[in-house]
Amino acid sequence: MRNIFFRNLVSPLTDIELIKNGFSIHKPFTWKRQIFYWNEINDVRFSSDNTQLILNTKRKIKTLNNDNIGWYELIQNIPENYSNFDYEYVKLFMKSLKACGVCGIIAVRKNECIVCETIAWNNGISDNQTEYLKSKQSDLYSDNLKEGIEIKKVAEPEHGFKADKNRKLYIKTTANKTYK
Protein backbone atom coordinates (compact mmCIF):
# COMPACT_ATOMS: atom_id res chain seq x y z
CA MET A 1 0.00 0.00 0.00
CA ARG A 2 2.93 2.37 0.59
CA ASN A 3 3.20 3.05 -3.15
CA ILE A 4 -0.55 3.54 -3.44
CA PHE A 5 -0.67 6.10 -0.64
CA PHE A 6 0.29 9.04 -2.82
CA ARG A 7 0.29 7.68 -6.36
CA ASN A 8 -1.54 10.70 -7.77
CA LEU A 9 0.78 13.31 -6.32
CA VAL A 10 2.93 15.22 -8.75
CA SER A 11 4.99 17.00 -6.10
CA PRO A 12 7.99 15.24 -4.56
CA LEU A 13 7.21 12.76 -1.83
CA THR A 14 8.69 13.22 1.60
CA ASP A 15 8.86 10.24 3.93
CA ILE A 16 8.75 10.77 7.70
CA GLU A 17 9.82 7.90 9.95
CA LEU A 18 9.79 7.69 13.71
CA ILE A 19 13.13 6.87 15.30
CA LYS A 20 14.19 6.54 18.91
CA ASN A 21 13.87 9.99 20.55
CA GLY A 22 12.79 11.73 17.33
CA PHE A 23 12.08 11.25 13.66
CA SER A 24 13.79 11.34 10.28
CA ILE A 25 12.78 13.00 7.04
CA HIS A 26 13.76 11.66 3.66
CA LYS A 27 13.08 13.74 0.57
CA PRO A 28 13.08 12.04 -2.83
CA PHE A 29 16.24 12.24 -4.91
CA THR A 30 18.40 12.83 -1.85
CA TRP A 31 20.51 10.12 -0.29
CA LYS A 32 20.74 11.62 3.17
CA ARG A 33 17.95 11.67 5.75
CA GLN A 34 17.48 14.65 8.03
CA ILE A 35 17.26 13.56 11.64
CA PHE A 36 15.41 15.54 14.29
CA TYR A 37 15.64 14.69 17.98
CA TRP A 38 12.90 15.87 20.32
CA ASN A 39 15.43 17.48 22.65
CA GLU A 40 16.48 19.78 19.77
CA ILE A 41 12.93 20.97 19.07
CA ASN A 42 11.76 23.98 21.07
CA ASP A 43 8.19 24.22 19.80
CA VAL A 44 5.71 22.18 17.76
CA ARG A 45 2.39 23.53 16.51
CA PHE A 46 -0.10 23.20 13.69
CA SER A 47 -0.69 25.80 11.02
CA SER A 48 -3.98 27.69 11.32
CA ASP A 49 -5.73 25.17 9.03
CA ASN A 50 -4.12 22.10 10.69
CA THR A 51 -2.55 20.91 7.42
CA GLN A 52 1.04 21.65 8.37
CA LEU A 53 3.21 20.90 11.34
CA ILE A 54 5.57 23.74 12.23
CA LEU A 55 8.69 22.75 14.13
CA ASN A 56 10.87 25.37 15.73
CA THR A 57 14.29 23.80 16.22
CA LYS A 58 17.44 25.24 17.70
CA ARG A 59 18.72 25.75 14.14
CA LYS A 60 15.69 26.66 12.02
CA ILE A 61 11.95 26.44 11.47
CA LYS A 62 10.82 23.32 9.59
CA THR A 63 7.38 22.83 8.07
CA LEU A 64 5.91 19.40 7.28
CA ASN A 65 2.75 18.97 5.20
CA ASN A 66 -0.03 16.50 5.86
CA ASP A 67 0.56 14.91 2.45
CA ASN A 68 3.97 13.65 3.58
CA ILE A 69 4.12 9.91 4.12
CA GLY A 70 4.15 9.27 7.86
CA TRP A 71 2.74 12.68 8.87
CA TYR A 72 -0.30 11.23 10.64
CA GLU A 73 1.87 8.77 12.54
CA LEU A 74 4.20 11.61 13.57
CA ILE A 75 1.45 13.86 14.93
CA GLN A 76 0.19 10.99 17.09
CA ASN A 77 3.64 10.47 18.60
CA ILE A 78 4.67 13.98 19.58
CA PRO A 79 5.86 13.98 23.20
CA GLU A 80 3.54 15.62 25.71
CA ASN A 81 5.85 18.52 26.59
CA TYR A 82 4.98 21.01 23.81
CA SER A 83 2.51 23.57 25.15
CA ASN A 84 1.57 24.96 21.70
CA PHE A 85 0.75 21.59 20.19
CA ASP A 86 -2.94 20.68 20.02
CA TYR A 87 -2.99 17.12 21.35
CA GLU A 88 -6.79 17.23 21.69
CA TYR A 89 -7.19 18.01 17.98
CA VAL A 90 -5.10 14.95 17.08
CA LYS A 91 -7.13 12.71 19.37
CA LEU A 92 -10.46 13.98 18.01
CA PHE A 93 -9.26 13.84 14.40
CA MET A 94 -8.13 10.22 14.64
CA LYS A 95 -11.31 9.28 16.49
CA SER A 96 -13.45 10.86 13.76
CA LEU A 97 -12.05 8.67 10.98
CA LYS A 98 -14.18 5.93 9.46
CA ALA A 99 -13.17 2.65 7.84
CA CYS A 100 -12.54 2.56 4.10
CA GLY A 101 -14.36 -0.27 2.37
CA VAL A 102 -11.79 -0.25 -0.40
CA CYS A 103 -8.33 -0.37 1.23
CA GLY A 104 -9.44 -1.47 4.70
CA ILE A 105 -7.70 1.33 6.57
CA ILE A 106 -9.56 3.54 9.07
CA ALA A 107 -8.79 6.77 7.25
CA VAL A 108 -12.01 8.16 5.75
CA ARG A 109 -12.45 11.86 6.46
CA LYS A 110 -15.11 14.01 4.81
CA ASN A 111 -16.19 11.07 2.64
CA GLU A 112 -12.71 10.45 1.16
CA CYS A 113 -10.02 8.01 2.23
CA ILE A 114 -6.76 9.72 3.16
CA VAL A 115 -4.79 6.57 2.27
CA CYS A 116 -6.19 5.34 -1.05
CA GLU A 117 -7.93 8.60 -2.03
CA THR A 118 -11.19 6.80 -2.84
CA ILE A 119 -14.57 8.43 -2.31
CA ALA A 120 -16.46 6.42 0.29
CA TRP A 121 -19.55 4.63 -0.93
CA ASN A 122 -22.88 6.41 -0.45
CA ASN A 123 -26.30 6.25 -2.12
CA GLY A 124 -25.44 9.29 -4.26
CA ILE A 125 -22.60 7.41 -5.92
CA SER A 126 -24.19 4.03 -6.51
CA ASP A 127 -27.23 2.03 -5.48
CA ASN A 128 -25.16 -1.12 -5.11
CA GLN A 129 -22.50 -0.90 -2.41
CA THR A 130 -20.97 -4.29 -3.18
CA GLU A 131 -20.50 -3.54 -6.89
CA TYR A 132 -19.03 -0.11 -6.12
CA LEU A 133 -16.52 -1.56 -3.64
CA LYS A 134 -15.65 -4.43 -5.99
CA SER A 135 -14.95 -1.96 -8.79
CA LYS A 136 -12.80 0.31 -6.60
CA GLN A 137 -10.89 -2.63 -5.10
CA SER A 138 -10.19 -3.92 -8.61
CA ASP A 139 -8.80 -0.52 -9.57
CA LEU A 140 -6.74 -0.17 -6.40
CA TYR A 141 -5.14 -3.61 -6.59
CA SER A 142 -4.93 -4.02 -10.37
CA ASP A 143 -1.13 -3.63 -10.52
CA ASN A 144 -0.62 -6.16 -7.73
CA LEU A 145 -2.89 -8.67 -9.44
CA LYS A 146 -1.13 -8.19 -12.79
CA GLU A 147 2.23 -8.85 -11.14
CA GLY A 148 0.89 -11.91 -9.32
CA ILE A 149 1.21 -10.34 -5.88
CA GLU A 150 -1.28 -11.81 -3.44
CA ILE A 151 -3.62 -9.35 -1.78
CA LYS A 152 -3.98 -9.80 1.93
CA LYS A 153 -7.52 -10.39 3.02
CA VAL A 154 -6.91 -8.55 6.29
CA ALA A 155 -5.62 -5.00 6.02
CA GLU A 156 -2.61 -4.00 8.10
CA PRO A 157 -2.17 -0.68 9.93
CA GLU A 158 -0.24 1.91 7.92
CA HIS A 159 1.24 5.36 8.37
CA GLY A 160 -0.34 5.80 11.79
CA PHE A 161 -3.79 4.61 10.71
CA LYS A 162 -5.48 1.54 12.15
CA ALA A 163 -6.80 -1.28 10.00
CA ASP A 164 -10.45 -2.30 9.81
CA LYS A 165 -10.58 -5.93 10.84
CA ASN A 166 -14.07 -6.24 9.33
CA ARG A 167 -13.20 -5.18 5.79
CA LYS A 168 -14.45 -7.47 3.04
CA LEU A 169 -12.59 -8.11 -0.17
CA TYR A 170 -14.89 -8.44 -3.15
CA ILE A 171 -12.15 -9.41 -5.59
CA LYS A 172 -9.96 -12.47 -5.99
CA THR A 173 -6.85 -12.17 -3.85
CA THR A 174 -4.49 -13.73 -6.41
CA ALA A 175 -4.21 -13.40 -10.15
CA ASN A 176 -5.03 -16.37 -12.31
CA LYS A 177 -1.74 -17.36 -13.91
CA THR A 178 -1.46 -19.52 -16.96
CA TYR A 179 1.70 -21.62 -17.19
CA LYS A 180 2.92 -23.15 -20.44
Explained architecture:
It is built from 3 helices and 9 strands; from the N terminus they run E-E-E-E-E-E-H-H-E-E-E-H. It is of the alpha+beta class.
Strand content: 15-25%
Helix content: 10-25%
Low-confidence stretches: 1-12
Main β-sheet, spatial strand arrangement = 1-2-3
Q: How many domains in all?
A: 2
Q: Give the termini separation.
A: 31 Å
Question: Quick one: biggest sheet?
Answer: 3 strands, antiparallel
Structural class: alpha+beta
What is the molecular shape? elongated
> N-to-C SSE series?
EEEEEEHHEEEH
Supply Rg. 19 Å
The average pLDDT score comes to 86
Number of strands: 9
Q: Helix count, per DSSP?
A: 3
Brief characterization of the structure:
18% of the residues lie in helices and 22% in strands. The chain is α+β, with helices and mostly antiparallel strands and 180 residues long. The strands form 3 sheets. It has a 3-stranded antiparallel sheet. A 3-stranded antiparallel sheet has the order 4-5-6, with no helix packed on it.
Identify the notable features of this structure and list them briefly.
180 residues, alpha+beta, PH-domain like, 3-stranded antiparallel beta sheet, 22% strand, disordered N terminus
Q: How do the strands and helices of this protein lay out in sequence?
A:
Blueprint: E1 15-19, E2 22-26, E3 34-37, E4 41-46, E5 52-57, E6 61-65, H1 71-75, H2 87-96, E7 98-99, E8 106-109, E9 112-113, H3 129-146
Antiparallel strand pairs: 1-2, 2-3, 4-5, 5-6, 7-8, 8-9
